[in-house]
Predict the structure.
Amino acid sequence: MWALRRLPNPLKCGLSSQAGAESSEEENDLEDGFSELETPANAETKENHIARDETKDGLVVDRELAGDEEDVEETASNELELLEVETDPSDKRSSTRRTTSELFKAIISAPGHSVNKVLDKWLEEGKDLSRAEISVAMLNLRKRRMYGKALQLSEWLEEKKQLDFIERDYASRLDLIAKVRGLQKAEYYIQNVPESFRGEVIYRTLLANCVVSNNMKKAEEVFNKMKDLEFPITSFACNQLLLLYKRLDKKKIADVLLLMEKENVKPSLFTYKILIDTKGLSNDITGMDQIVETMKAEGIEPDIRIQSILAKHYASGGLMEKAQEVLKGMEGDNINENRWACQFLLPLYAELGKADEVERIWNVCESNPRFEEYLAAIEAWGKLSKIEEAEAIFDRMLKKSKKLPTRYYATLLKVYSNHKMLQKGKDLVKRMADNGCQIGPLTWDALVKLYVEAGEVEKADSILQKACQQNQVKPMFSSFMVVMEQYSKRGDIHNSEKMLHRMRQAGYVARLHQFQSLVQAYINAKAPAYGIRERMKADNIFPNKPLAAQLAQVDAFRKTAVSDLLD
């Protein structure tokens, strides 16, 4: 039915993590600690997307922490953010279009941990503390990834009894605790939630955060707990597992699909998006097309994001004509009337090497570009190695807004990184600092890769170490891995082990890719990796075929009585 291979033993009682992983290196590189949480079907329309792009009060979405999978899974789309704007319909100010919040502006002006003082003063002055005002403030804090301040706001509201908490408020608190203090503290918090509000939304929020952390064992425990509590199995919960298995253990995707079929859970658009991308990443174009046909047969048409995924995978598979056919479909009859598609088309045409098409699409936007179109054009010209064009668009964007979010700089920084332009990258980071930008994970990632590409691995390592010492937000998983892989190529066991240790300290759970890189370091050093299998087993990691081959290779370096005599 789904055009995916099914396992002979369908899921009966629950889920287990005792299966081998077959994630590609590309996917592992994209794991940056943020889950691509599903957005309800009505949440992201062209109109409200454009409304957000055209925000003039500086409350634009800063995806500084988002990874490189934004074309596949909406890293910034958190269902809890959408709940924040579901206010009292009788309140005329309650609108998903409302983006300004005086409360938000007051909170972000508070230094460090003085949020409570600002809120106390706000209360004393009798200013607006309606659910609408609180919701928009919370929404904007989340969009800026200011989870610490959002958590302080939530705790203050409950302590001061300024908001009658309902299930979604407790779920929001749980989510913030997971992000700021970790999964264990979030799980403990559930016991503090009144039993009448301890429903499915609470547990699926915990599940989503397990997926954020790539913690397969805990995610499966939470999912099975939800089944034990007899909560209905939803497409949201199943999609979270699909996301997890897409990264960590593709063989278990079939388990989830069998469960959905058994429980009569209809796949959502997001379900199909995950399945299509999984097939594409595996270079199974036929399987990908079959899933699209199944989706259409169910009455669900591919949206522009799914079309983008299809075009990308057709191009990667060398099917340029099919890719161009999809892009023309995305344009529609009149690209000027279908302006929203431009931000997707620009990098995709660049992927095909079509500079003339990139220029044509940019001409549609050029008179009054939206910020997303600026970013897409910078990325596109970068892919085409037209650095001057990318820089010109960046400078124009900078003139439009005096203070840009960090991710806007990071887009150009990534271009420099991809072209080994170390000095230009360093100059841009200095410019960011001069303009008051917060340097965070996405910037660190681009800098680390910039130095690695320039052959300065030790400098990249130093930047990563300093980023960890700042102890605010952990660096991206890919930042650690790009350095570890360089040490691995050198056969530098000491530094490879050190990078693995740092990842643990940063809070990343063990993954197959880490052990593949580590074992390769031992192979390149022609040294035995004593106890490596026991370490993997302790971390619930089971070797796939490539890693099994690596282990067999490294076993050859074990000392024997004969080898001791010959040394």
User: Anything to note?
Assistant: The CA atoms of residues 23 and 74 lie 20 Å apart. The two ends are 60 Å apart (CA to CA). Residues 167-181 form the longest helix (15 residues). The mean pLDDT is 81.
